[in-house]
Design goal:
The protein starts with a helix and ends in a 5-residue tail after the last strand. A hairpin with a 2-residue loop joins strand 9 and strand 10. The longest helix has 11 residues. The relative contact order is 0.16. The mean pLDDT is about 95. The protein is globular. With about 260 residues, it is of the alpha/beta class. It has seven helices and 14 strands. Helix content is about 20%, strand content about 25%. The protein has a seven-stranded mixed beta sheet. Strands 7-8-9-10-11-12-13 form a seven-stranded mixed beta sheet, covered by helices on one side. Helix 6 packs parallel to helix 7. The protein has one domain: Metallo-beta-lactamase, Chain A, CATH 3.60.15.
């Protein structure tokens, strides 16, 4: 599967996405390979087995980890991902505790900041999981990221609940595509340490009120007791914001999205 993804032919301005299950996505531009929250450790608790090997990401350009949970920053697999040129972008608040790879492989972001990496503009958007938590230096423990490249921009929220100011930030950044969690949250899960996310309704409303073009649900299919039906997201979006293009991306599916002149 990884070779098929890497060899996907793109026209100027296009990007390719592949979802690996949970909130793990691969992204390809004409000259960059990017991974978001690659979760590749095998576990009997997984409902979707790893579709690629950690070594397959070693020649990627960027690997993002949105927060320090094992299905987002997969510590046991980091050293195998880091065997090539790949650089890692992590929240500053957790990066110093990551000893599995050399610190010179890590780029840190605090939240509400921006950097440029080889022509890609990257904005770090604080995420509430379930709270907006910061360290003593004001760096957020959970982040989402907006990437601008190839005449198209994409927001990977990481794990996130709605909080005051999130919609305003996303309206300003105006991503074309949003990759949003939809598994929701409740008291039972919170008590057992399963920290929650937006509901599918909240995710649709965020995308709709932000005025984005394409919304893709995620984080709904990996673990028993923390699941959601993505068709509910699609149906709600079609009913409330029919102008939004929605997709359920099956694990391993590759889709190509065209960009527009900015």
């Amino acid at each position: 599967m990884i070779n098929k993804f890497k060899n996907t032919a793109l026209k100027p301005g296009e990007i390719a996405l592949c979802r690996l299950g949970q909130h793990s996505f691969l992204m390809k531009t004409k000259d960059k390979l990017i991974a978001f929250d690659p979760y590749l450790s095998d576990s009997p608790k997984r409902l979707i087995k790893p579709l690629i090997k950690a070594e397959d990401l070693a020649d990627f350009d960027l690997i993002f980890g949105t927060h320090d949970h094992s299905d987002h920053i997969d510590r046991p697999q980091l050293s195998r991902m880091a065997g090539g040129k790949a650089k890692f972008i992590f929240p500053e608040a957790v990066a110093s505790s990551i000893t599995e790879i050399p610190q010179n492989k890590i780029i840190t972001m605090k939240g509400n900041d921006a950097i440029e990496f080889n022509g890609i503009k990257i904005y770090a958007v604080p995420s509430a999981h379930e709270f907006l938590e910061k360290d003593s230096n004001g760096a957020y423990f959970s982040l989402g990221f907006v990437l601008e490249t190839e005449n198209i921009s994409i927001y990977h929220s990481g794990d996130c609940c709605i909080y005051e100011g999130l919609l305003t930030t996303l309206k300003k950044l105006a991503p074309d595509i949003m990759l949003l969690p939809i598994n929701g949250r409740d008291a039972e899960r919170f008590k057992r340490g399963c920290i929650g996310n937006m509901t599918y309704q909240e995710a649709v409303d965020l995308a709709g009120f932000a005025g984005i073009k394409i919304a893709i649900p995620a984080h709904y299919d990996m673990f028993d007791g923390n699941l959601e039906n993505p068709q509910l997201f699609i149906d709600y979006a079609n009913a409330k914001f029919p102008q939004i293009e929605t997709h359920i991306m099956l694990p391993g599916e590759i889709k190509i999205f065209p960009g527009e002149s900015k």
